[in-house]
């Protein structure tokens, strides 16, 4: 036997290779001892997660929801010693009523739930139907704040035999206060499991061509239904404190990139599409320009026809329906504007589901 033979051992037969490297989940229930506990295995879970929603619009329901949301250290980074007294003695005594009134304006009365819950459930159902050709896939949905909780759905998937789970925070642009807190909560749940499933997390997809194309097609479709042509379209993203950007959060840049790519896809000039940030809270400086101030200023300068879309929101919610479609429309008209249109989110539309399915299939590569 020469040196080459020593360096390159004889090739094993196909049967031997298969024995040495058995296929995943090769065990069969019949091979288990008769007294073995019943175990489900061999499945793959997909868990889509959105921000959250109160269960009702009354004071106590709103207070529970706001307390969970505003207690998250990813959302509010103010030192606890300063934040806790303000939260518990001021905000949670006054804000629930005001927020409840706002939710009342957009509440799904038929199902007695928020639009965000209605749409997220539908997205989950439609994704499940789209993945029906993959019999090992189970699709579920959860909320970071409120119900159903992430831990409950992870446990349910694991008990159904999902040894691998794809966690999909429904945020095209990454922010620590959104994507990261969903991931945190999921890993917190896994830390309490004896048999942990393998977990993949979906990364930001702010520049994904399928997402950009869906935004463009949706915008074109909705503008085609109007009896006017907007002089400008604003892309309004949820704001975060400027301090978060300075600490290294990439959210601001990803929002601008989404709008730039959307403008290029549409073939529009730079002055036709702009970026603003909405929903600021408290007295700190947030990402600018602010949506409400921009809309007021445009109307004061003589703009008569305006449309606003919200690319960072995967589903319509309080911030898109009431804040943009309600409050900001009023600001525009009060300052002299005439025609205002709030472009619906992608939601569970054909365009929206095309994006969700595309991202899921992309991130499941190697598992299916």
List keywords for this structure.
4-stranded parallel sheet; 13 helices; single chain; about 45% helix; about 15% strand; Rossmann fold; 8 strands; about 375 residues; disordered N terminus; alpha/beta; globular
Describe the structure.
This protein is α/β, with parallel strands linked by helices and 368 residues long. The protein has a domain at 209-342: Rossmann fold, CATH 3.40.50. 46% of the residues lie in helices and 15% in strands. The chain is built from 13 helices and eight strands. Strands 2-1-3-4 form a four-stranded parallel sheet, sandwiched between helices. β7 (305-309), α12 (318-334) and β8 (339-342) form a beta-alpha-beta unit. The longest helix has 27 residues, at 80-106. The radius of gyration is 24 Å and the shape is globular. The two termini are 43 Å apart.
How far is the N terminus from the C terminus?
Answer: 43 Å
Helix tally?
13
Mean pLDDT: 92
Biggest β-sheet: count, sense, barrel? 4 strands, parallel
Number of strands: 8
Helix/strand/pairing class, anyone?
alpha/beta
Level-2 CATH architecture of the domain at 209-342: 3-Layer(aba) Sandwich
Strand order of the largest sheet: 2-1-3-4
Give me the CATH fold name of the domain at 209-342: Rossmann fold
Order of helices and strands: HHEHHHEHEHEHEHHEHEHEH
The proportion of strand residues reads 5-15%
Low-confidence stretches: 1-28
Helix share bin: 40-55%
| Inertia-based shape | globular
Rg over CA atoms, rounded to whole Å, is 24 Å
Q: Which CATH class of the domain at 209-342 applies here?
A: Alpha Beta
